Fold this sequence. Notes:
The protein has three helices and 59 strands. The protein has 731 residues and is mainly beta. It has a 33-stranded parallel beta sheet that branches. A nine-stranded parallel beta sheet has the order 10-14-18-21-24-28-32-37-42, with no helix packed on it. An eight-stranded parallel beta sheet has the order 11-15-19-22-25-29-33-38.
Amino acid sequence: MGKVSLKEDNMAHRVHWLITIFLCLLAMSAGFTTNPLQAESLGATRYVNTATGSDSGNNCLNPDAPCRTIQRAVNQAASGDAILVAAGKYTYAGTDNPCDQYLGGLKAVVCIINKELTLRGGYPSGNWGWSDPSANPTIIDGENRLRGVYVLSSDPNKPSQASIEMEGFTIQNGLNQGAASGSDTQTFAFGGGMLTDYAGVVLRNMRFTNNVALGGGSQNTYGGSASGGGAAIRRTPWRATLENVVFVANRAEGGSGRTRGGYGLGGGLYVLWAEMDGSNLEFYDNTSQGGSTQGNGQTSDLQRGDAFGAGVTIMGYADINLYNVVARGNRTIGGNAATNGGGAFGGAIKAEGIPTVDANGDGVNETATLRIFGCDLTDNLAQGGDAAVGGISAGGALETIHSTLLVERCNIQNNKSQGGNGVSAQGPAGGGGIYLQNIFYADPTATVKNSVIAYNSVGAGSGPAVGGGGGGIWLQGIEATIAHNTIVGNRMLTRPLQGSAIDVLSDGITHAPKPAYIRYNIIANHAETGVAAVHVKPSNTANLAYNLFFGNSSNVNTSQVGVINGMNTSVLGDPRFIGGAAGGSVENFRISTSSAAVNQALDSSEVEDIAGNTRNGVPDIGAYESAPFQVWVAQVASETLRAYWGTQSGIDHYQLTVTCPPGAKRPAEVECNVPKRYPGDADGAWLTRLTNYASYDIAVTAYGADGAALLADESEAMPTDIFVYTPLVTR
Length: 731
């Protein structure tokens, strides 16, 4: 593991350099204000329709005579105006585009400089009364040659001069490509679909598809970095807002370079020096690709062709809240090289801060805080590049360094951290699900709670062994609280690796080791021989409290071990997952009322579970609070009852038994006191031809595929021929 830690130390140095360069490129000097974007335009309304409009001499104010291009309306607009855009495809107009004056003349289909504007799409042609982007797609198309949208305050001392509130658009096929040679400003690429600099940002009901940021620098020593294939948001003057935004198949790829490749950051979204609230964000099949090279792969300053966060990468000063995030099938791939492969950090999400450094001299340190409330991170990949020394992979779903993190109510499944292939050394791999680290700065902390972390995997590349571990979670030099999670079936694809569920270590850090608090978790089904579920390396401390261990080949390591406190509080028993912990639906990890986890989280103060259900009394261990199974019986007609138990995940079949009172008729559907089987997708049963005013007892038991009884309840009810309707009573 020593080599892994040295690589991590080098990686932290590289990213520190990268943040500083990016901030210097922006030359940022303005502070945050509290001015929000206006919810509605306070100015004029302008109209655009590519099918029926005309730009010639048009101020775009007449809804019956709209302009043809969005750029014409932007040029005519004043701050505070709203621009309504009819369905259609909008491409570069070629005239009167102010972006030709900025960023070396790199063009954009829509360019907004020093204006505060609202753009709304989704209007049907000829009808400005309502908007439906699904029925009336409004597309800004870069045609694989130009950026889609650029918003800029050209004076960094007055960042509030520009803002955009944009709703109901698809931005597709955008491209921003760095030059083959020149300075970083020329070879770096930002925001293939959209770039905002020093500008306020509100995006709602948007879609970014097939946009690319491509670094240049092929003639330079190192390749240009590429950030934000879909969108790059840099230096917002107030909190940005993203709601219902989807990123699909966008790509950020570093340039080649003679010695090493450039960085690829945020294939979907890149955020630098910003405060932001994002809700209902979705990231599918985005790619961050480190630049490959035929050279050594590492320059004298220890930079390599690394890749970061294919869904979203967050860097520099940041205060970010994300709600209900979905990230699936994203790929973060380090660049290949002759000698040193690039690393891959965060298959879906990456955050990086420099807590004690003011990188751009504006009086604000580069602290990064990321809070995630509700997420589905599945089937993402971090993969190191191939070289003589394979590149490291860190965090199949999520990786942070020097960042404060809160993850709550998340489903993190089937992600993979795969090291690059090597000849002299394999690429090490860690954190199949989550990889959290502090190398130079000790203060940031992490909390992961009320989440399912299951069936993630870690595999080192080919070549002589270096190591790795943390099939579910990797904790390196960070004080972390891992509480009320269900951690199941995470795997090691190669050996030697450590900690199939959680790995706690401090290799390579420059400060004292930090403790891990591992409390109230179900840690189950890590059955690989010779690998402990929880591995604590020497000089490290793990404080355990009331965890449930089940089906692991070894619960904790017993050799070359640090300090493990609280193992005596552990519960050893079957969690009795309703869905058999088969993976897939997070509902499969709910626990039955017969689970050994029920009422065992002593001293826990957690009040809700992963689904928002109340934790009553002594909480249950794990992400889910066991929900009582209930049978309701309704009087629906004379001599008729309807038993209802609802649909339950992971049930193979139900067994219903009716106990009939003496002298009463049996139900037409079932014999008295003889169990009847119902399929697992049944939600209830009818009972007819009963005796009115006789009390029937109805018992239902739910069984798993292995024949184990998982849920049971019974109810008593009396059919009647009296029914009350408002306002009449009838017999």
